[in-house]
Design brief:
Blueprint: E1 6-15, E2 18-28, E3 33-37, H1 44-52, E4 59-64, E5 67-68, H2 73-77, E6 80-83, H3 95-105, H4 110-124, H5 139-150, E7 157-161, H6 169-186, E8 189-193, H7 197-200, E9 205-210, E10 213-218, H8 220-224, E11 231-237, H9 239-248, E12 252-258, E13 261-266, H10 271-284, E14 288-294, H11 299-307, H12 310-315
Parallel strand pairs: 3-8, 3-9, 6-7, 7-8
Antiparallel strand pairs: 1-2, 1-4, 4-5, 9-10, 11-13, 11-14, 12-13
Helix pairs in contact: 3-4, 4-5
């Protein structure tokens, strides 16, 4: 039987009247990448801080490789690597000095951390920059240094809190290739918070968190199936007119612009009716419809559906 790396049961934490995390359950196996997604303020970062032991829960439990954070915190933390959203290393130390500092804080001997650091720097592509000050690195290189530091203890569980926010698309791609290799080649379990749906689509499983509670979970394909038959793609001119008329339709629950296209989320079983009616009304208003057809849902569509209405998002 495969050993569970991360087991979270009924995890809850409040700050005064704010219920940041409510009854969260997670199970992450070796080699899995679990994506935690949700709107800002949904509880993603708080959940990660509870899992790494930075916060204590009001209720529930966290086990890392069978070790409870409450009863065997030291053994549990030894198996965790953590990369925060903000760069939190020392900019006046070199790349190698940063890794050395973190390794020695963990009690690692010189003959243990040095070869491992060289290995990690080569893995993330920073070996030629080992003597450069961390403050002189680009944003993407800083995140790679953070990853190398998170791997110094050879963790079984890697926690990533929006690791690619603010970096360019090429760097995001490179970073994710490293994460995929860690899971696939080394069997590491990864829990990542991300606001990017293209990143969520790379995960083995995705949990959508809202108001501190996971309201939907599954593989990316399972989540997309939630909206099968309910997404229409509208192309035509002028786009502002098309968008306005789509949002007026009583069977259109949401309309979002994707470049020069518009994605419509319609009520269940109403796609055919919306197509006929909207096509007729747009043309009668002087607009042009080049195409209006049903398409497979994107994770972005599911995210918008699960995030609720704009008013609900503001209330949260």
């Amino acid at each position: 039987m495969t050993e569970t790396v991360l087991l979270v049961e009924h995890l809850s934490r409040s700050f005064g009247d704010i219920h940041a995390v409510k009854d969260v359950n997670l199970n992450v196996q070796p080699g899995q990448i679990y994506g935690l997604v949700g709107p800002d303020g949904a509880g993603k970062t708080t959940a990660l801080r509870l899992i790494c032991g930075a916060f204590k829960p009001d209720q529930g439990s966290v086990k890392i490789c069978g070790f409870s954070l409450l009863d065997k915190a030291e053994q549990a933390r030894e198996r965790i690597g953590y990369l925060s959203q903000q760069f939190s290393l020392y900019e006046d130390l070199t790349v190698l000095e940063n890794i050395r500092f973190l390794a020695e804080v963990r009690g690692m001997a010189h003959d243990e951390w040095l070869p491992r650091s060289r290995e990690n720097l080569a893995f993330v592509g920073l070996d030629v920059f080992k003597n450069r000050l961390a403050g002189q690195l680009s944003g993407g290189m800083k995140q790679k240094l953070g990853l190398a530091c998170a791997l110094v203890n050879r963790p079984r569980l890697l926690l990533l809190d929006e690791p690619t926010t603010g970096v360019d698309p090429v760097t995001r791609q490179d970073f994710w290739q490293l994460v995929i290799r860690l899971a696939g080649e080394l069997g590491m379990a990864v829990l990542v918070c991300t606001p990017y749906m293209d990143e969520a689509s790379r995960c083995s499983r995705v949990g959508f968190i809202r108001k501190g509670k996971i309201i939907q979970e599954g593989t990316p394909s399972q989540l997309r199936q939630l909206l099968t038959g309910r997404i229409l793609e509208l192309k035509g001119d002028p786009v502002p007119l098309l968008l306005e008329m789509a949002r007026r339709d009583t069977d259109v629950q949401d309309a979002q612009r994707f470049g020069e296209q518009i994605h419509l989320r319609v009520a269940e079983g109403r796609a055919r009716t919306v197509k006929r009616r909207l096509d007729r009304e747009i043309r009668s208003s002087g607009g042009t419809v080049r195409s209006l057809q049903e398409i497979p849902p994107l994770l972005e569509d599911v995210f918008i559906e699960l995030a609720g209405t704009p008013q609900e998002a503001r209330d949260e």
